[in-house]
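Throughout our pipeline, every protein is held as a single compact record rather than as scattered files. Such a record has a labelled line for the sequence and another for the backbone structure tokens. This encoding replaces a full spatial description with a residue-level series of whole-number codes. For reference, a complete record is included directly beneath this paragraph.
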Amino acid sequence: MEKEGSVHPVIKLRCGPVPDNLLAGTQYHVVKTENVVLKLSKKGNCERIGGAICLVKNIILDDDEVYIVYKTFQNFGNFFTSPLQSSLLGIVVVADLQNEVMSA
């Protein structure tokens, strides 16, 4: 995630996984954009990244770029199907969290 005028990491911390290529970066608890607030909390850390449902594990600022460190869920499906599929509203049931830590 490129850091532009609309991306603001806030609340520094030191916890969560850090990929080897981001060891020099500063870790954050929250990042805000014009449309999204990502938090390292149970209520704000699940997000869709590149078509996958992901659990955000860390937020790192390195060389003026914001990186999201995450794990993906292998399986997800509709929570309900009537009167419409819940996935159309962004509501899904997830399962099988992968062990691999990724960053974007």
Observations:
- The two ends are 6 Å apart (CA to CA).
